[in-house]
Amino acid sequence: MRDLYLIRHGKPQYPDEQSYCIGQTDLALSMLGHLQAVLLHEELSDRISRVYYSPLARAAETAGHIAAELPHLPVSDLAERNLGEWDGLSFDTIRRKWPDIYEARGNDSDHPIPGAETPFASGTRFSQAVQEILRSSEGDIAIIAHTDVISSYLYMLHPGTNTRQHFRLPCGSYYHLRVDEKGNAALSESGYILPHPVLSDRLCYILRDAVSLPPHVQVHSDAVTELACHLCDELEAHGHHFDQKLIRSGALLHDIARLQKHHTRTGGDLFLQLGYPEIAQIISQHHELKETKLDEAAIVFLADKLIEETQRVSIEKRFADTLHKCKTPEALRSHERRLKQALKLQDMIESICHITL
């Protein structure tokens, strides 16, 4: 028996915040998509001997993150279903231009789309490509493709299922199939799987590299991590226990979205979507806490306020150096709130640990 991992690529970068109908329209990965691809690598790279992928950019870029030392082969027939006149359009546009067809597809997801490849045709194309891959390869393999063709293929394998929509995959997830010596594939009992590996230091570094986080931001994050873990050790020595692994991962990743607008909220949203809510809380609060209480998020928040670039500074200096960025009354009030939070936390830790920060 062999293992086959059918993977849906990471989330693509859409043109804007609208929802789009994407078949063979060629979109690159979003920031979230790159992070999802790294988690797929972490979970699957030691289970496979080679990688096959659709030549569309979102699948090819996902493949690029997975087991780079193994053979990677593009296969044209693994591409997503061609969605005809709808391909690449927003659903708002589709609703306006084809209201009757749009409504019909709300009742039957396989209602024909003008000029589109049928689910049967794309599923057959994909199935034949998978069979050829299995015939020409050995060992356990990964195939990186798209939800529509994957769902059509699996529906053909399990015709008793009510609808092929049952097999649709979220971005960055996969199905595990077992393949017998005759090349017959069947789903394992686990259903689709969203990778959720432990966030080791090594994995945190890979995640930061995957989104091209600049070196100066990375070394700042490392300095914050060192101080946050030191504060955690001091508190533990005085009977106050916190999850140091969570603090360490949160600190290493707290600036993961530093180059993005509203970077704390953006970074927190990324890790919430990846399935790490506790890390998301730390990232989203490292700029300003929801409430001033001593917990893992507060320790990372305070460490961040005591580190400027890579140097230890006083809270007063850190906030004085950023005051010029406050251009509005609301920004000044927020700056003052954060300063009060940092000073209060510093007083709490100094009182508990009998130290001066």
Cα(first) to Cα(last) distance is 60 Å
The count of DSSP E runs of length 2 or more, i.e. the number of strands, is: 8
Strand order of the largest sheet: 3-2-4-1-5-6
Counting copies of identical and different chains, the oligomeric state is single chain
Overall number of domains: 2
What is the annotated CATH architecture of the largest domain? 3-Layer(aba) Sandwich
Computed Rg: 24 Å
* Beta-strand residue percentage: 5-15%
Low-pLDDT sequence parts? none
Biggest sheet details: 6 strands, mixed
Order of helices and strands: EHEHEHHHEHEEHHHHHHEEHH
Question: Can you give a write-up of this model?
Answer:
- The structure is a single chain.
- With 357 residues, the chain is of the alpha/beta class.
- The protein has two domains: 2-187, Phosphoglycerate mutase-like (Rossmann fold), CATH 3.40.50.1240; 201-353, Hypothetical protein af1432 (Orthogonal Bundle).
- 49% of the residues lie in helices and 9% in strands.
- The chain contains 14 helices and eight strands.
- The chain has helices at 31-44, 57-65, 91-97, 99-107, 119-135, 147-157, 201-210, 215-237, 244-253, 263-274, 277-285, 296-305, 315-322, 329-353; strands spanning 2-8, 50-53, 72-74, 141-145, 174-179, 185-187, 307-308, 311-312.
- The chain has a six-stranded mixed beta sheet with strand order 3-2-4-1-5-6, with helices on both faces. It has a two-stranded antiparallel sheet with strand order 7-8.
- A hairpin with a 2-residue loop joins strand 7 (307-308) and strand 8 (311-312).
- Helix 5 crosses helix 6.
- It is elongated.
- The model has no long low-confidence stretch (mean pLDDT 96).
